[in-house]
Structure formats: C-alpha cells, structure tokens
Amino acid sequence: MSAATLKRAGYWTMHYAIIALYVAFALFPLYWLFKVSLTPTKLLYSEGVRMWPSRTTWENYGFVLTNSDFPRFFLNSVIVSVSTAVLVTVVASGAGYALSRFRFRGKFWLVGLMLITQMFPLVMLISPIFRIFTPLGLTDSLLGLIIVYTAFNIPFATFLMQSFFDGIPKDLEEAAMIDGAHRFTAFRQIILPLTLPGIAATLGFVFTAAWSELLFALMLISKTDASTFPVGLLTFVSKFSVDFGQMTAAGVLALIPACLFFFLIQRYLVRGLTAGAVKG
Amino acid sequence: MATIDIDGVRKRFGNVDVLHGVDLTIADGEFVVLVGPSGCGKSTLLRLIAGLEDISRGAIRIDGERVNDLAPRARDIAMVFQSYALYPHMSVERNMDYSLRLRKTPAERAREAVEGAAGKLGIDRLLQRKPRTLSGGQRQRVAMGRAIVRTPKAFLFDEPLSNLDARLREQMRGEIKKMHQDLGATSIYVTHDQIEAMTLADRIVAMNEGLVQQIGPPRELYEHPTNLFVAGFIGSPAMNFIDATYRREGQNAFLVVGEKRLALDERDVADGTPVTLGLRAEDIAIDADPEDPGAIEATVELVEPLGLGTIVHVQALGTHIKALSLAVVEHRVGSRIWIRPHPEKFHVFEEATGRRLERKAQFAAELPA
C-alpha cells in the first residue's frame, strides 16, 4: 500500500470513527431506556451498573399493558397528537400559501404578531389559559389540549410551510390558472402535491411536539381518563419509590408511534419533487 | 381567434409606475412582438393581458369584451412561460391535456388533441415521460404543445426561448413562426432579443421605461426608428451614434462633426441644433475613394470576421464606428482606410429629445429615385 492510500484509509477510518462516536452518544440514552425496561426490578439495584443485565424479562411490558392505565394514556396521546398535527398542517398550509403568494394590507404586522407569540415562555400563559378554559369546560378534556397545542404550533408551522411554498415557482400555478384552473384548484392539484415533503415535515414536527408535551398536559388535566402519556409516566413515580422498570417499558412503547410516523413520512422528506419543473 | 384591444393601460406596483399608459390594437391572427430591455414593462403588459396582474387603469378587451375583471381561466388564452412551468408530477400527456380535463373535454377528443399537437411538435414518443427526464428543447416543445392543444383565442409567449442554447433557439424560432403560419392564431410574444422580434413579428412594439416607443412592421422600425432608443435597440450590430451639429447655409444643409462636414438633406430644425447622427454598420462602405467628398479617414481598431461578412471597428470622427462589409476584409489593425457612410441612410435625431428629424417633405420628393 502506498503512503497516499494509507493516508486515505486513515482519513476515512477517522471519519467513520467520529460519526460512530456521535451516533453512540446520541443513541446511548435510548439504549439505556431499553436496557432498564428489560431488567427485572430485583436486579436493577442489586447488580450495580452493567451494560446488560444477567437476566432479562418482558414482565415490565406485560404489567404496563395489562395492569396500568398506560393504554388509556397512550390512546389519549394518539388522539391529541394526530388531531393537533392534522389541524395545524391544514391551517399552516393555507396560511403559509397566503404569506408566500399574496400581497395584502397588514401582512407585515400579521407576520410580526405571529413572531411575537413565539417569544414568550409558555409558563407565563398557563394561568390565563387555565382561567379561560375552566368556565368553558375545556380543562380535563382532550379538546382543550388540542386547542392549546394547535394554537401554539401554528405560527412556526406557518413559517415552515411558507418556506416550502416559496421554493415552488409561482409560474406553475399561474400556468394552471391560465390552463383554466381556479386558484384553489391550482393550489390543490399542482402546488399541494409538490409540497408533500413540506407537509410531511410539518406533520412530523407538530406530531412530535404534541406527543412529548408535558407542561400543559400536566396543568390542564387532572383526571386519569384524560391524561396523555407524558403525564402518565409520572404515575410510576410514587411518594416513596420510582418504578423504573415499568416507567422505561412505557417509555419504549411510547417511542413506537413516533418511529412509525417518521417511517411513513420519511420518503416525502427526502424526495425533491420539483426537479424538472422549471429549467434547473 | 381574436382581436385584442389595449386601451390606456397603466400599471402601478406600490409606488412604482411600471406602465404609463399603453395603447395597442392587435388584429385577429396577427403576430405582435413586445420588445425592450429588461424592466421596460413588456412582461408586465403580457401578464396584464393574461390576467395574472390587475390593471391599475385603462382597459383590455379581447374580441370586444372587457376582461379587466375576468380571471385568467375565463379569458381563454394560452401562455408559454420562460421557465416552461411544466407540472413536474405529471407526465407529458397529463401536462398537455390538463386544460382539457379542467374543461371536462371527453377523453377521446382530448387524446386526439394531445396526439395531434404532439405529432406536430415531434414529441409523440415522450408522452409518458415526466418533465424532469426531458432536455431543455423537449420541455420547450411540451410547453408549446400544452398551449396549442385547446386552440385558445390567443397565444402569449413570455421569452420562451431565452433558456435555450443558440442553435436550439434558432431552430425553435423557425418552428414558432411555422406554427403561427399553420394556426394563424393571434399571438403576443415578449422578448428582449431584437433578432427574435425582427424575424417573428408582423408588427413590433418597442418599449422602454413603461412607454411604447414605436409600433410598426420590423422593417419600419429598422429603417425609420422614431427615436434614439428604437434606433439603438433594433439592429445588430447596434447603430453607430455620432454627436454632430446641424447647419444650414442657404440651400445647403450639412452636419458638422469635429472638422468634417457631411452633406445632408434639409431637416425641419433650427441652424446650429445639436443632433445625433445614426449610421447602420451596413450603410458604411469601407475602402472608399479618398477623393470622394463624403469619404472619412479612419483607423482600423478591430476586425471581426462573421463568416457571412466582416465587422470592421474603426476610429473615425473622434469616436468608435462599426462598419459591416459582406466582402472578405484583409485590413490589419492600425491600418488607415477610408470609409464612406451612405448619405441617403443618415438617421438624424435631435440630441435634446432623441426624436427623429425627418427630411423636409419637398426635398424628399425631389430626391432621385
């Protein structure tokens, strides 16, 4: 092997080593979550810190799925997150399109206001929202959570969608309108299909945000029936002990829908659909 | 097919006036080219006709019907975009029949129309392909095909050839002209390329800074530009401009350029008026007889062989002048030659206003044929 080849090999080894190190660093907590969920409770404290327990068990999962309220929390989370993601994406698509394509009076101030909403820490808003929601019967209700999440996610999602629409040449819908389409038809038949990657990204982003939200879920919901899973995880913490085995098992289960969701949309995230639209 | 009437149309974007009142009547079946430098308002005018922008003032009528408030879809016009604007997620066939499907044309008839247009444009084998797999020229053809399938009232072209390479541009130019001869459709074509304008147009509309400068057949703009702008914009190589003073002594009119006097027919302007003399490169003979009173001494600066002829750049009359000769020119750079501008082909413009100074009528009538 020549010196050059060696140098090259060394370079790539280094390259991959650094990447591997980073990936290991990022994924280690997940590994630990999974490991703890498989460790029998008795061994958790007696064995000390070990990379893999001497004996593994699925009983934590069994317990969580059959003897706890976790399935209820899980279902609540799915309802809240999916509704929020869909609602936000629909509204943000329309709003993002308007911001991208139209000149209208007050646009500057509207965008400014939307940005301002992103500046406040959410904690500040909890008590006023609680005061508003209580007489409306929206506390202890999934609908209340959906409304709050939707409201908080729309500004950012709108900017996200706007940037995707900005990337699609205006000529395309103009061509469609001259071809005989109504603006809305052009939007639906020409622009939306090309924005699928953007829609997927927005759905994914909002879904994840809603799925893992704890603060509002904790403050607005006190009944077990209406709790989402991040709140539910706290039920494994009792006054005198923390049941780590069950808690981590629930955590692993809660990861599944997020993974599934990203698996479904990943092909839209990577596909550049506008290739060939205009000269490039 | 249709007539298009543009009546005092103005367009203002925010605080900027883009069109300052345009009047133009386009006859049924006419091919009109809007030409001008970028920012002159030609594309805006086209978009107003298409309905993609709102008209600030004035009116546009298609076949006598006022369309100011009609949506693009209701105007029944087709447009070819500079970017082609093909729908990337649809096959060529879907791209072409999109307008027909929107109009609920029976599938059988739509297929016939698409196949007919595709045959005419030589893209019948590409119908199932997606736009991204096509070359620039093929995309251009699909864009044209999409316009012709539904036989609209008028075709609008927005610089359709400017993304193609020179050879392809020349070929497509020919095809557009042929297509117009076949279909006889009213067409409005926007370009900044004066050669496209000259070759395609029945009438050219030369525009600058939101104003129409001159409307007329290509030869008229070429031979009788009404002002300095049109004179400088139309023609390649560009017209030579030389600063001069108009003088008249008794019956004799002449131009004074530095030391030189150039005889001229009388113009309707005061003695001593500063003017600009315009000379087309092909109206300047090289290797003139030094004894000829119209001959001007010149120094060769650059020789550009075109194949078809030669452009000789010279220094004369205190400025750079380009002369076009169809003969093979053997002059070396730096050599001294005599050039002679054709006095009948002098274009004289008033320096202050840029407007063309015509010959006085009685003199024009007396000129030998």
TrEMBL record, chain B:
Tell me the superkingdom of the source: Bacteria
The Gene Ontology biological process annotation of the record reads: carbohydrate transport
As for subcellular location, the record says: Cell inner membrane
Q: Which Pfam families match?
A: ABC_tran, OB_MalK
Example of a GO MF term = ATP hydrolysis activity
Q: What GO cellular component entries does it have? A: ATP-binding cassette (ABC) transporter complex, substrate-binding subunit-containing
Which segments constitute the ABC transporter domain?
A: 4-234
User: Which InterPro entries does UniProt cross-reference here?
Assistant: AAA+_ATPase, ABC_transporter-like_ATP-bd, ABC_transporter-like_CS, ABC_transpr_MalK-like, ABC_transpr_MalK/UgpC-like, Mo/tungstate-bd_C_term_dom, NA-bd_OB-fold, OB_MalK-like
- Chief location category: membrane
- Keyword terms of this UniProt record: ATP-binding, Cell inner membrane, Cell membrane, Membrane, Nucleotide-binding, Transport
Q: How does it sit in the membrane?
A: Peripheral membrane protein
PANTHER family xref list:
MALTODEXTRIN IMPORT ATP-BINDING PROTEIN MSMX, OSMOPROTECTIVE COMPOUNDS UPTAKE ATP-BINDING PROTEIN GGTA
The record's NCBIfam families line, in alphabetical order, gives: PRK11650.1
Regarding protein family, the annotation reads:
Belongs to the ABC transporter superfamily.
Entry protein name: sn-glycerol-3-phosphate ABC transporter ATP-binding protein UgpC
Q: Which organism does this record belong to?
A: Pararhizobium mangrovi
